[in-house]
Design a protein that fits this description.
This is Transposase. The longest helix has 34 residues. It contains 15 helices and 19 strands. It is globular and about 80 Å long. It is an alpha+beta fold. The termini are far apart.
């Protein structure tokens, strides 16, 4: 019987691993890598023979979808290209290799399931051909299917039992991390043991797949709608009695000089120790393989550490911004973005801020909070061109950051106005009467925060609009945000919490000091 899917969240906890235990764990990872490669090779072979068969070619011509699908399933079962057949092959390989003490039955099953999932994506044309894992691409994690065998979390002792190994987890006290201890009260579905390189050393972690919804650290405004406009380097947020334009991931600062220096040092080392890999004009010879020197490896480790720190800070900044947005409302409306176009036009900015990753994290958090992230149709709505006072679409250059309202009532910041329009959209359509009602309530907030100006704008001969910037006359009205506090049992993070001048709630989505 098929198991019912339940909500799941992940807890990552560092492990205390001794040098001898580290060697044993690496040996098990190597066994998992070899088993993965053997299983993948067999799956590729079976899939290739299946597609070469005449019955398969004939089945492709069947017009009836149901009949064609049933026939494909029958042929796959006969060829052994099913999850059960792949799992059986993986277990046979594990037993014949004598790895019963290294890889349990559940771990072997999970490896086979991962192989078949990758092959299924390849067979359906959704992804490319799965690659084998070489020595330079080792296996970084092993997981079981349940918390009853092979890899077991023992909540009473705070340890992981991985076969004959008992690895204690590095747990903070309840006063230091109440969120972690509250999340540990949920049922553990299964565990994953993984390693990462931190400061050049291998560190081991366990990820607990907990059943249910993650505990909320902050209070969230349920039922409120928030408009969002994401740019390459800024984010505009408009909620109930709040309007903000903030720098996207302002704490993530890419050290371009340092990374460029490390990349050049790696290139020089590679060319000096492997001259046979390069042509006379300095280009790479196709098919050559280079041997990394000790110096190259040391520089590569230093470069990887720089990128690891940036990735960790980026993930933290994404989570902080997402939590602040959900404090305004758990229903977020935003235009559908082309992240490929962002990468082509704003490559460096996208590399530093990763807007696509942020949107996915915001979507997951909104759904976990009982809300949703609604994707609005970009081409039909055209937020940056629409004027609700005249109901006319006017295309503007990117350099023009202020929008002159058609009725002459003032100028409004372009990104903030787009976020406001996104908040007012209903059923992927602009409704002028609804927007006018919302504008009457939002206008005092925009005037107070400085994003709407009633004075005439200065239009230069080039067509660029400039606005004489003035300090905001009062603190913005942020009813939801000002009342938003930490959930019961949680305290402020002394490292993360930073207050802006005049910000009693410590909320970063406030209009910056002008």
């Amino acid at each position: 019987m098929k198991r019912t899917a339940t909500p799941t969240f992940v807890l990552s906890i560092p492990l205390v691993v001794k040098p001898g235990e580290d060697r044993i764990l690496i040996g098990r990872m190597e066994a998992g890598r070899r088993l993965y490669n053997a299983t993948l090779g067999e799956a590729l072979r079976r899939h290739g023979l299946l597609k070469q068969s005449k019955d398969w070619q004939h089945t492709r011509t069947i017009a009836d979808k149901k009949l064609r699908s049933d026939e494909f399933k029958r042929l796959s079962k006969e060829a052994g290209f099913t999850p059960a057949a792949i799992i059986t092959f993986a277990r046979t390989c594990k037993n014949e290799a004598g790895w019963k003490d290294r890889l349990g039955s559940n771990v072997t099953q999970r490896i086979a399931e991962q192989v078949f999932a990758a092959m299924q994506q390849y067979a359906f044309g959704k992804r490319g051909r799965p690659r084998f894992k070489g020595a330079s691409r080792p296996l970084h994690s092993l997981e079981a299917t349940t918390n009853a065998a092979n890899i077991i979390w023992k909540p009473e002792t705070g340890c992981i039992e991985f076969g004959d190994l008992t690895l204690p987890a590095l747990l903070p006290s309840k006063t230091q991390d109440p969120y972690l201890h509250q999340a540990l009260t949920n049922k553990t579905k299964y565990c994953r043991v993984l390693w990462r390189v931190v400061s050049g050393s291998r560190r081991w972690f366990v990820q607990l797949m907990q059943e249910g919804i993650a505990p909320a650290k902050h209070e969230q405004a349920c039922g409120e709608i928030v408009g969002l406009d994401i740019g390459p380097s800024t984010v505009a947020v408009v909620g109930d009695n709040s309007a903000s334009l903030v720098k996207f991931c302002d704490t993530v600062v890419q050290p371009w000089k340092e990374t460029r220096r490390l990349q050049r040092a790696m290139d020089r080392s590679k060319r000096a120790t492997n001259p046979h890999c390069f042509n006379a004009n300095g280009t790479w010879k196709k098919g050559q393989k280079f041997t990394p020197s000790k110096r190259y490896t040391a520089i590569r480790t230093e470069y990887a550490e720089v990128e690891r720190k940036l990735a960790a800070e980026r993930k933290r900044a994404h989570g902080e911004l997402a939590n602040q947005i959900l404090g305004l409302g758990n229903v977020v409306q935003s235009e559908t973005l082309s992240y490929l176009a962002f990468q082509k036009n704003y490559g460096k900015s996208v590399k530093v801020r990763a807007p696509g990753m942020f949107v996915e994290q915001l979507r997951r958090k909104a759904e976990s909070a009982g809300g949703q992230l609604i994707d609005l149709h970009t081409w039909s709505l055209k937020m940056s061109q629409y004027d609700h006072t005249t109901e006319v679409f006017t295309k503007k250059p990117l350099s023009q950051r202020w929008h002159v309202l058609g009725d002459g009532s003032g100028v409004v910041q372009r990104d903030v106005y787009s976020a406001f329009l996104a908040r007012c959209v209903m059923s992927n359509t602009h409704h002028p009467s609804h927007i006018e009602t919302m504008w009457a309530a939002q206008k005092p907030v925009l005037l107070q925060t400085g994003w709407l100006r009633s004075e005439p704008a200065k239009i230069e001969p080039s067509g660029k609009i400039t606005v004489a910037w003035q300090p905001a006359r009062a603190t913005p009205l942020e009813r939801v945000v000002c009342k938003r506090g930490l959930a019961a049992g949680h305290g402020l993070d002394a490292v993360v919490a930073r207050r802006e001048p005049g910000d009693p709630g410590g909320f970063a989505l406030r209009t910056p000091c002008l």
